[in-house]
Amino acid sequence: MGRLALVSTDTVMLLSACLRRCARLLYWIPVTVIIVVVMWSYYAYVVHFCWILLTCAAQRVSTPPSSPSVEFQLSSSDSLLYEQERGSMEKSQILLEISQKLPVHTRTATGDIRFCHHCQLIKPDRCHHCSVCQMCVLKMDHHCPWLNNCIGFSNYKFFMLFLLYSLVYCLLIVATVTPTFIQLWLGRLFDSCVKLHVLFLTLVSAMFAVTLCFLLFFHIWLLASNKTTLEWLSVPFFADGPGSEAFDVGVRANFLQVFGEKKIHWPFPVFSSQGDGHSFPLRWQMSSRSPSVMNGNGHCVMEGIVVSPEGVSVTIAVDD
Question: Which of 186, 191, 193, 251 is nearest to 221 (CA)?
Fold first, then answer.
């Protein structure tokens, strides 16, 4: 009996010791969760977020601006015929015949069809010649000297994502470094190396955050109203006069023109913009209340009948 009591006592003590050890292991579960969360946050922040940011920057730099297709360029025979003609009326007639086959609506301030002398092509709507890149850029927004590249139809989405992720990145740095900066301000940090990094990170990140914030909201406004920076600076002209809101077809439609209809592609640096960059829907074409639509040949289309408007002359302007 004594031996049985001794064995049962040892068994109970062994079981209690095992339970205590299991309980101690359970105490480490919250610590393990914290370590896993920290490791995951580092992985998500550095690998995924920073990778997407760097990818957007790389796409913005490496994606070349789109140029007009060959149908907008003068053929060798048309170019030779154009150069041989000396009279402006004859040259205008040659280019006018070519422009009648193209979806061109915009004009110069004087009502002339836009023609690029450098590229020898009729400019599509919203297309401009970049003197730095030495080419006509589709839906040109601006030339960025910091990246030595034009922002236009082919990379405007990458530009918007780059601004967004750069702003989030700067705000994260400011939010995480500010407590240490306060300690530095109160004189509780004595490591000169830490002081230098904290001061530099805080000031530079805050400066870039403010700049990117204004720039991002400005381009969000441009995106919502379907304008480019060049169109904001200089109102586009049409055969019947200026039209500052000619390409504005609604906030949602304007957004989808740049980011596309597939929501899965919106946050990633993959090209998903609508169209080919040569033609864009016009406000008066989308409105059912508009009695007439001006097409690319300077004619008014009313209920399927094409008539030439009185008093409207179409000429050709050559950009020097």
Answer: 251
What's the distance, Cα to Cα, between the start and end of the chain in Å? 115
pLDDT of 114-167, one tens digit each?
888 888 888 999 999 998 888 999 999 999 887 788 999 999 999 999 999 989
Residues annotated as catalytic (active site), given as ranges = 144
- Model confidence over 163-185: pLDDT tens digits? 999 899 889 888 888 887 787 77
Write phi, then psi, for 106 (nearest 5 degrees).
-75, 155
What element of type H or E holds 51?
A: helix 50-62
Cβ within 8 Å of residue 249, ≥6 positions away: 226, 281, 282, 283, 286
Q: For residue 64, what are its two tokens?
A: 């070349």
Query: Do the Cβ atoms of 258 and 169 come closer than 8 Å?
Result: no
Q: Model-level pTM?
A: 0.73
Pick left, alpha or beta for residue 134 (phi over 0 → left; psi -120 to 50 → alpha; otherwise beta). left
Nearest to 247 by CA among 211, 274, 272, 208: 274
- Give the number of other Cβ atoms within 10 Å of residue 249's Cβ: 19
Separation of alpha carbons 45 and 73, rounded Å: 47
**Looking at this protein, which amino acid is placed at residue 48?**
H
